[in-house]
Amino acid sequence: MHLQTIATLFTVLGVSIVTFCLVQAEVSYRRVQWYLESKRSADREDSEWDGGA
């Protein structure tokens, strides 16, 4: 009985850790995508300024 309880706790803990890691990975991925997009639009604005001059 106790062994089953411990196994259940470890399973819940493992699932929680995996879920947390997946969420962190998703957040990091979105941050990188947002950074690249903002950098790309900034480069576009710079080229427009160069073209205007």
Structure, explained:
The chain is an all-alpha fold and 53 residues long. The mean pLDDT is 89.
End-to-end distance, in Å?
A: 78 Å
Shape: rod-shaped
Look at the structure and give the mean pLDDT. 89
Strand content: under 5%
Order of helices and strands: H
Q: What does the largest sheet look like? A: none
Task: Provide the descriptors you would attach to this structure in a database record.
single chain, 53 residues
Write the layout of secondary structure elements.
Layout: H1 2-52
Short description:
The chain is mainly α.
